[in-house]
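Sequence only, no structure available. Ideas?
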Amino acid sequence: MDRSTRQATIWATVVALPIAVLVLLFLFSQFAPEADEPPPSSASPTAQSTAPVEMAAPSLSDREQLVCRQR
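Reply:
I predicted one. Tokens follow.
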């Protein structure tokens, strides 16, 4: 690598690296959650009932009852 190419590479790095860091910091500040923002309600799990649920069975015709019993 000749000297001019090496110097160009160094200058490109010196300029690009701080710009990339500033862009990342800006994006982080825009998308980071606010400190006083409450967490979503789904974040805290709650106990769920595992009891059976009662529901009315549909009335079946004679044919449907026959097919249901055969299965």
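The chain has a mean pLDDT of 86.
Hope that gets you unstuck.
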